């Protein structure tokens, strides 16, 4: 079966879709020990027997790209014969095949839909776009299964994303003209995004704070982002408004409004204020009040429909884990 054409390239809004995130992730390495059953086999055939979740064609592409090492040395010949006891290390790179549009049926919580766009409520745990370690089961795969026309659009119409463990609202285009318009609107700050977050430590100081702190890759840990000094490090401007909603002895509930959309922006800015998000272990938080994922929820998305001119102002109810956390901290709060 041929791979559907994803359409011509599109320059997505940098603020809302930091495209360098996936390429900067450490590669996923797979180490395989060849057994008696593989002795004398072609290398590509042996790999296909041991890495069953990927096709032989995909593994041959990895061989051609130099992503396979046999006993510590590069292996590029698919027909090379192997021996029992050989050790193969594969770098699971994205290839054209692994990035192919593959429909996968899944339940999607759509809160608004028309002929041009849809807004959905993404649950925590759902990855938005295929990446190392998550080549399937993503929102993109679900969108392709829901609407075959999505295969005609770059990234199935996705113009921004939420972290895997962040819940909440996302807008997705259903045609190319809408996608182009949404990208422009996002770049021009015409899409309002507001989040609710539970953070460690009691809030101090004014109830409203604006964090303007540039962000870039943390030089000490490539999995993290960090506030950086642009005079000495590469980074991009980032701005977040934070408003206190409830305060307690051990933590606080805040509303965050994004002006830019850097990777992990709210998580990094809250940590920079001394209030890492509950259960956000990457940025100094710890599990508490039943939360096992960062306590962050994109509860409001507002925009003027790019084609009809209709004002859309949508809310997503708090997920059960955050409702429970509010109750345990005795924070009485209802979405308004």
What does this entry look like structurally?
The chain has 336 residues and is an alpha+beta fold. Helix content is 17%, strand content 25%. The chain contains 7 helices and 15 strands. Strands 5, 6, 7, 8, 9, 12, 13, 14 and 15 form a 9-stranded mixed β-sheet that branches. A 4-stranded antiparallel β-sheet has the order 1-4-2-3, with no helix packed on it. It has a two-stranded antiparallel sheet with strand order 10-11. A hairpin with a 3-residue loop joins strand 12 (239-247) and strand 13 (251-258). Helix 2 (43-50) crosses helix 3 (56-64). The longest helix has 12 residues, at 176-187. The protein is globular, with a radius of gyration of 22 Å.
Q: What's the topology here?
A:
Elements: H1 20-23, E1 29-33, H2 43-50, H3 56-64, E2 68-70, E3 73-74, E4 87-91, E5 109-113, E6 117-122, H4 139-146, E7 167-173, H5 176-187, E8 192-200, E9 208-212, E10 215-217, E11 225-227, E12 239-247, E13 251-258, H6 265-272, E14 296-304, E15 311-315, H7 320-328
Parallel strand pairs: 7-14
Antiparallel strand pairs: 1-4, 2-3, 2-4, 5-6, 6-7, 8-13, 8-14, 9-12, 10-11, 12-13, 14-15
For the structure shown, list the relevant keywords.
globular, alpha+beta, 336 residues, disordered N terminus, four-stranded antiparallel sheet, nine-stranded mixed sheet, 15 strands, 7 helices
- Silhouette: globular
Please work out how many helical segments DSSP would assign.
7
Q: How is the main sheet built?
A: 9 strands, mixed
Using DSSP, what is the number of strands? Answer: 15
**Global mean pLDDT:** 88
